[in-house]
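Contributing: when you submit paired examples, paste them exactly as shown. First protein:
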Amino acid sequence: MKILTIIGARPQFVKASVLSRAFSAYSDIEEYIVHTGQHYDDNMSAVFFKELGLRQADQNLNIQGGSNASMVAQMILAIESIIRQQDPDLVLVYGDTNSTLAGGVTAKMCGKKLAHVEAGMRHGDLSISEELNRVLTDNVSDYLFCSTEAAMNNLLAEGAEKKSAQSFLCGDLMMDAALHYSKIAESRPILLDNNVRKNYILCTLHRAENVDNEERLINLFSALDKIAEHTPVILPIHPRTRKRMSEFGLRTAVTLMDPVGYLDILNLIRHSSLIMTDSGGLQKEAYCFKKHTVLLREHTEWVELLDNGYLITAGTDPLRILNAFNELRNKQSSFEENFYGRGDAGENIAGVISKLSIGANVSLRES
């Protein structure tokens, strides 16, 4: 089976490193990787390929910048040409980015089977581009690989089986990656290099709806600065966030550092006391390392973390952020639930795809 894999953003590089490694164990699977260029500079792209051992993409489209619609349109045109040239048996996309949507829509327009990894995630707010991307992609996919029971239930409620799509519960590739790379990450000197002491808060901010809005960004740093008065706050700063801070004239008591690679972010999570983020993937990585999360968004797709008290949604309101911080800063929890599998999601997904390629029957639950 020839698989055309489409990636473009940092979380997708991490997931692809796990699944591509699993594919390599199957002689009947050939993978062709396309990088859309959505995340493109060294700190946002190249370092991830190098650290994770992910081979360089077979093609890089170098599509970046512009509105969501403009980016998706450019990607569709470029991906169509590649699909026509490569004639894959299956197109595979990850997650909820513009690259995901562009790859999924183009695959179906070209009459190709489509697999969506990390399918079924929902938080219900279609005004957020990631939610729109994942819902649309799920609705045209043939094979839906779910990370959680909640995702499977979402697809069932939406009638995925009536559309002749097959859903599989396989576990989460980000959990695989965190477990696999954590020992390597431990030897990294990120803490010493940046004079970081333990018992700090690790924060990340990058979502457009947060950092492109001056009032929201001011509110976020108001809360972070208040916390930083007595607890160190470390923020590896996204280029978008740094640019907006400069434009808005924002100064902060938070410790800013340049963007870091995947291994360094794992190390920073491990040694932190709490996570504050607007990221999707970091919520799961926090759970893997037994850290609570203050989510700087109104919604989470990882509802099991919210429902079991490992995460509080605080949005961008300073008072809510401070209240959530105070509630979670010394909270003791078990972190014993098996929400995301046992580190074998990559093997499960590769095994299902190999079986599908020969027309074998496959269980709906491969975890």
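Second protein:
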Amino acid sequence: MERRAARTVDAGGVKIGGDHPIVIQSMTNTDTKDVESTVGQIKRLVAAGCELVRVAVPDKESARALKRIRALSPVPLVADIHFDHYLALAALDAGIDKLRINPGTIGAKALKAVVTAAVSQQVPVRIGVNSGSIHREYLHLSRIDALVKSALFYCEAIESMGCKDLVVSLKSSSVMETYRATEQFARGNDYPIHLGVTEAGTVRSSTIKSSIGIGALLLQGIGDTLRVSVTGPPESEIPIAIGILRALGLRPGVEIISCPTCGRSGYDVAKAAQEVEAHLSMVDLPLKVAVMGCVVNGPGEARHADFGIAFGPSEGVLFQKGEVVNKMPNEELLNALIKLMDLARETEDPRCKHEGCSRNSRL
């Protein structure tokens, strides 16, 4: 799909916009003053695949902790600021890589001071617009129009202060409002866009809302960075984000093809598919792997898969590119599939050449 043309913004070495890969980000939910806990969570997020992490800065003590947190963080950090512009200035002094501000909660003079400092330190700014930050001049409009006009107003105001390194988000807890507002805003400008459905709920609810809202915009080529919002551990956000990007072909990785099972299934297909998925979750080779419950859905319907297994009443088949390569008892199929895939990974992925590579691990 063709990406919307957007200017490139650099957040501590992470490029957002242009032709750069869509950046996955999240936000810590630890007490920012607790440096050890916050850094620990940042590292867990990075291990899961997060590339940019936002931290809340609600008070002076949190701002003072930022310098140590930034020094220990393996990825660039974004300071999340509301109301008190002095916290934004303190975050900049601490070496933060990007600011997220809500202009609707900061006065004009205070906003000017923050923008001037950000420009002088070459730190990009994300303008976050939601239902709580609609400009008073647009409160009479529909929510969608108010979000769009508020975002454009704030962008124009901040650009007039000399800041060109802007990223913009328009978020609502409504999937439809988020989609329509973002799609409308994306026309006629080249600001990099941060995607997300805010307050999306639990893992189950957020997976549904985010897949629809974020996915629909990505299908139109809109979006340069994203955050999946989950009520709970932020580490749970990353697999959803990666899954959305992989499903749209926007990030390399293994695609698991598995049937929904039926009365013909002679084996626990769900468990087998889950084990294969877990084994390959961090593999970024563009492979299709099939786990099928019977020969009806085996090499025939899954002919396009690179590798696959199809269980039978007592024995099944191992196949590659639609061709059966072996037949064996059901209990042996899973390990045979994993060995075949690992052999292919060692051949195709230069990072797997050395002995003991974690990418070569078995179940």
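If you have annotations for the second protein, write them as plain sentences, like these:
The first strand starts at residue 9 and ends at 11.
The CA atoms of residues 220 and 292 lie 32 Å apart.
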